[in-house]
Here is the input.
Amino acid sequence: MFHYASFLSSFPLVKSSFFLARFLQHYCTMSEMLANNYFIVRNYAKAREVFLRLPESVRNSDAVKKKLVLCEIFLGNPLSALDYLLPLVVQNPGFIFKTDLELEDCPCRDLICELEQRPGFSQEDDFCLLSISILWLYCSLENSLHYLEMLTSLNGHPKVNELKLQIQKHINHNQLINSTE
Here is the structure.
């Protein structure tokens, strides 16, 4: 019987390539686990740092982007959070809008309270309002839209307008489904 693996292992380059591939696969898995661990313990700066070092194919997964949104919000970068959020909302809105807060250990409600109690938080600050709005997306579309409507200087921002449009589309879709039941 011919053993393909033993045949390939007789070639040093193939053998080293195989081990390199296995090492990289293991490294990626361990790095993602490390990033997830930082995320779970609410060390968002370290989680973001490790998530961003993951290979692009892993970093571009919906699950990683969803966590990067929260990391960016916590680190005070709501416009960067929109860069990760908008593709998710357009391509897979349910992944964000239908988050199971308990099952996924979603920190949004805790982050909302924490942001509102931070020194310097103001309902007149568009970046604070945008951050709160993005966090509400995981829990309540209506609350999210309410905070987006309160924006002043960011009100005409293309990414903000796109987010408003996507939320409104989803709310209208849900109302249509509920009215036909």
User: Anything to note?
Assistant: Residues 1-5 have pLDDT under 50 and may be disordered. Residues 12-40 form the longest helix (29 residues). The chain has eleven helices and no strands.
